[in-house]
Task: structure prediction
Amino acid sequence: MDHKRRTFLGIGLAGLGALAAAAVGWPLFRYLAPRSSREAAGKVVVPEGDIPEGGARFFEYAGSSAVLVRKRDGGLVALSAVCTHLGCIVQWQKESQDFLCPCHAGRFSTDGVVIAGPPPKPLAKIPFSVSGGNITVG
Amino acid sequence: MRYREIIMANFMRLFSLIPLILIALLLTRPGLAQETAEIVCIQCHSGLPEIYSQPIRLWRGSIHAENDIACHDCHGGDPQDAANAMNPQRGFLGVPQEPDIPAFCGRCHVGVMRDYLASAHGLALGRGGPTCVTCHGNHQVLKATLELINEKSCSRCHSYERARTIRAAMQETEGLLVATETRLNDFKKIGSNTEKLEKELFSLRNSFHSLFHNVNLETVNKQAARIQLELKKIQAVLTEWDQAVQRRKIAGALAVSVMLLIALLAHLVRKTYD
Result:
């Protein structure tokens, strides 16, 4: 009788033990697994002709504001348009060829490097490729 | 026995060092270090008659003080050298003349200055119109809120009616802004990574508050609607976070129940061996 009871309780214990192990393992797996980021999924295609020399085009990328700039030497740069100080959206200054944050006067070069004001970091660069007259960001 | 005494003595010696280590850590905290190394402007002006020391007292309660924006950030000069603190060659600007105030504040608040200069208030600059300090104060500058538009303040120059209409149009969005900020702060307190949302919220609040300078009701309504849409997106993310917290609570309760059940079964198994 005791043997049967012990087997029954043992099965119960094993089941609960497996449940407890899964309860510990699942969050651990979720934590260690790479993010299935909804943000990383999106790509943005911009026709090359949309950005004149010395001009910029703002667009939504991964849920935030981003910008493509064609430098006066013809080179292209894709950057996050979110100021690294407090998060305002930077504005392109065509005359001075730099970015100005309207909130606290942070200034960034065409490449996103901080040239004045309180921003602690450069604007984040975004990967892009150019083919067939289109710029694919992301 | 001798060894035991030596070990105990060493342990007690180490134990007695703990308060000293804690004090050393406390003194090396950056905030405290900053407080002790006050800039010369504050050292000097604090001891002067009220007219000169009042700005310090007012500034201490300002949004600028909260964000480490001190005297020299606006007035220039050298905050580390008492002899040259007010030397124009070290960039000291002193107090701006009234028509120069918007440009003075606008060195940092560029977007706001642009909005102000384009507004009816800005167009009246130098002709009796208000400057930044008329509504925001000079040293005790507070975080901008809708409270700045009030009958007492606006009635100093004109009738409150138009301002009342604009304030009413902005009330709903302001309420949404405050509610979103409160929810975000609650998540921050429990250790959630709120940096991205905080930045989005700051940007929205800034665009919204720049409307304070625009006295065109149509523009205010249009922009407020856009900002409300963006705020609702942040609210939706916070609702997802809320749901995740709820799910975690349920999972936690289930985990505790399973552990109790395991303990009970283990106890019953042990009893079968008695």
